[in-house]
Amino acid sequence: MADRTNPELLLEVDNLHVSFSTKRGEVQAVRGVSFSLSKGETLAIVGESGCGKSVTAQSIMRLIAQPPGKYKEGSIRYKGKELTTLSEKEMQKLRGLEMGMIFQDPMTSLNPVITVGEQIREGLMRHQKISKADATKEAIEMLQLVGIADPEKRMKQHPHQFSGGMRQRLMIAMALVCKPDILIADEPTTALDVTIQAQIIDLFKEIQRKTGVAIIIITHDLGVVAQIADRICVMYAGKIAETGMSAAVFQQHQHPYTEGILKSVPRLDGDRDQPLIPVPGTPPNLMNPPEGCPFYYRCEYAMKVCKEHAPPESDLGDGHYVHCWLQDARAHSIQASRQHT
Amino acid sequence: MATRDIMGHHYNYLCSDATSTRQPLDVDDVGMSEQARENMMAHYNLDQPVIMQYFTYLTNAVTFNFGPSMVTRSREVNDMLISGFPASLQLGFVTLIFAVISGIILGVLAALRHNRMIDYATMFIAIIGISIPNFIQAMLFIQYISTQFDFFPTAQWGTWRHMILPALALSSGPMAIIARMTRSNMLEVLTEDYIRTAKAKGLSAWQIVVKHALRNALLPVITILGVLVASIFTGSFVVERIFAIPGVGQYFVDSITNRDYPMIMATTIIYSTIFIVMMFIVDVVYGIIDPRIQLHKKEE
């Protein structure tokens, strides 16, 4: 997919398969996901609940508990280092230092009994041989960067003394304190109210401008994606449906699922009486995923081939890839004949 | 004496009325003169109204003066208690420390190895600790350990070796409770989001467990610690008796069988005091560990 010789390339996920064994069987949460991330880039992974986007993100940090989780196939390479088979000790050195992660709910993601300062400082002190005083100084600088006023005083406070938006800022400070190359944000704005969401998104942009960190943002909020993403991966049922530059996915999307989720977003300039257009149906059960295209049962353009064979990847140029049989040359005649009847 | 009303009789019974007819020591039987009786009544303040007698008793009790024992008449209750206290306190603290440390370690191990051998073994030990009363355990220890190994004395008090078996018998119950609580709290805390955050920071497993998980998991354990301390001290009465330890426990048990009321009152009050103080300490410690429940401080 991506240019292997690109020196700017940070992270490469190739054909990743992640499964969870449960009492009722194996859930194939991620089934062959590939993408890459270059320095300073923002990649958005979008998709509905349960499509495997969070599992993909947590797999990169190897935060999936094994068991029940398992990396079945594929590879995750960070600067050429294979992460799926790296020892836990090596992985600990990477976490926090080379990649930071922010989680969805800032209300529960901070330890309630430890001071905010200590929670920011401890990552630094773990990864760098640094005195407590120096770590404190850096933590204070970090708090200033994420826009927390009076950081010296705030350092000694506990998480319950911060509001939700402030806590998400703390999480960002915590993830960035060791100056990682990659910041993975797993639904960072979902738990926040809308005005705070905008502030946090602005903060991401500002931080990226100042530090040049590459961001992977996981979300189902297309508004957030439009504001921040350079590139977009649309995931469906553990697979990538469509990926490409932000503008291409928004304006020249080829996959029916992408079209569906874009249509389902309410429009400010639309008629107020017009009901929202949902994507009908529910995603397939990943315990027993369909053989062909997972979107087959919900797709209005579905063809016979979609049910039986998984669609190949079609290269539309400029990094725009689609997994859909509609891209096949033979599909046009079928769709055309359908429109006539 | 006979005209005294029921209430007054009751108070006198409690308030060291050495001349009451119902006492083991019945002065009337020894043919005391009227004058001697009056002198005696005056000496013990029994000529005063009941309410005043009670007040006198309370003032004395507050200053930990419980008067003479009714049975061992030559000795003050205080002297006896003070002579018994070192052994009881020693045993209590050894028990407490052992119960807390081993309980927490077992609980944490069980949680980290959830649904594996260590978990099952630990919980088996815990169930035994809870289900077999400590006095039965004490007797079993004497029967099967002391008599087999000279290393463990069957009774008496003196060296640290004397402490092992009684402390073990006393601590198994509290230890089991602490282990079970620690385990269930740890299991809950380990699934919290902030544990994942800590992991994402690259902290080691040890740092995550000790610094991030244990502190949160121990909050409820600390709450029950106050009650456990009380149960350890009260539980020690019988176990002290079994191991013939010269602690406060023997006086307490003896005083009940001998109807030595000043002694019963004194031991009860002292143990209540210990209980209240422990509860207070627990509350303070709780505030230190969990900043969310700190006493309200004025900002600036």
Rg of chain A (C-alpha, Å)? 21 Å
Estimated share of beta-strand residues of chain B:
under 5%
SSE topology string of chain A: EEEHEEHEHHHHEHEHEEHHHEEH
Summarize the amount of helix of chain B as a percent range: over 70%
> Which structural class should the secondary elements of chain A be placed in?
alpha/beta
Coarse morphology of chain B: elongated
Low-confidence segments of chain B, given as residue ranges, are: 1-26
Estimated helix fraction of chain A: 25-40%
How does the major sheet of chain A shape up?
8 strands, mixed
Task: Tell me the number of helical segments of chain A per DSSP (H or I, 4 or more residues long).
Answer: 12
Shape of chain A: globular
Write down the Rg of chain B: 25 Å
Oligomeric category: heterodimer
Separation of termini of chain B?
66 Å
Structural category of chain B is: mainly alpha
Largest interface: pair, residues per side: A-B, 29 and 22 residues
First-last Cα distance of chain A: 38 Å
From the structure above, extract its key features.
heterodimer, A: 341 residues, alpha/beta, eight-stranded mixed sheet, 23% strand, globular, B: 300 residues, mainly alpha
3D architecture notes:
- The complex is a heterodimer of chains A (341) and B (300).
- Chain A has 341 residues and is of the alpha/beta class.
- Chain A has 12 helices and 12 strands.
- In chain A, the strands form 2 sheets. An 8-stranded mixed β-sheet of chain A has the order 6-7-8-3-9-10-12-11, with helices on both faces.
- In chain A, α3 crosses α4, α3 packs parallel to α6 (164-176) and α4 (132-145) packs across α6 (164-176).
- Chain A is globular and about 75 Å long.
- With 300 residues, chain B is an all-alpha fold.
- Helix content of chain B is 71%, strand content 0%.
- Chain B is built from 11 helices and no strands.
- Chain B has helices at 6-14, 34-43, 50-62, 77-112, 117-131, 134-146, 160-190, 193-200, 205-242, 248-257, 261-289.
- Chain B is elongated and about 90 Å long.
- The A-B interface holds A 61, 63, 92-97, 100-101, 103, 105, 108-115, 122-123, 126-127, 158, 160, 171, 174-175 and B 192-194, 196-204, 207, 211-212, 215-216, 219, 289-292.
